[in-house]
Specification:
With 231 residues, the protein is an alpha/beta fold. 31% of the residues lie in helices and 29% in strands. The protein has one domain: 3-Layer(aba) Sandwich (Rossmann fold), CATH 3.40.50.300. Strand 7, helix 6 and strand 8 form a beta-alpha-beta unit.
Amino acid sequence: MSSLIEVKNLSKTYVSGEVETKALCGASFEIEKGEFVAIMGPSGSGKSTLMQILGFLDKPTGGEYLYQGRNVENYSDDELSVVRNQEVGFVFQAFNLLPRTTVYENVELPLLYDTEKVNKEIHKNKINKALEAVSLSHRADYFSNQISGGQKQRVAIARALVNDPKVIFADEPTGNLDSKSGKKIMEIFEKLNQEGKTIILITHETEIAKYAKRVIRVEDGEVVKDVENNE
């Protein structure tokens, strides 16, 4: 059985005029379905570049990325769009909620890109299930500017969950939160992983990485450590 994610000698170089910047240099690892992996590193280490490639938001300049055993290079643009919308969910540091819209409408957003004609009741059930998963059903009609930072991030998690993705990418999800709110967010990810979700967490904080079961450390674009997390 193949891994959910496998990268082989992955590299990424950004070119600006005559200047080349190597963001990734030969990264290789596998991630199995159901893992909770933290990708750690200081600012500029290449961890966010790695997440963008793993999340189908960018392409490598070298090496291979296999998703469910298939080389991503062989995916058409339409296939990549479907994977981004249906199979992966994203949670970012800045929440990225739409202003002047309700919690319910923010969670609904990924469903609006569904090209298949789906019964509205099915969509409603998906949204309600996602809100229940983050304990925000009672805030469904609130506007995004009426809730706290921690609640905004929970809305972002519900939005990532609404299509029941195979993997959730969380890029510094506690970076804009106080420690108490951050702890609640990480406990949600922990619970989702226990329920079978694959979680890939990007962080530079050791305390946040402790929630993961495995830590991949990146420095200067290279994977320097890949260990099980015993803490």
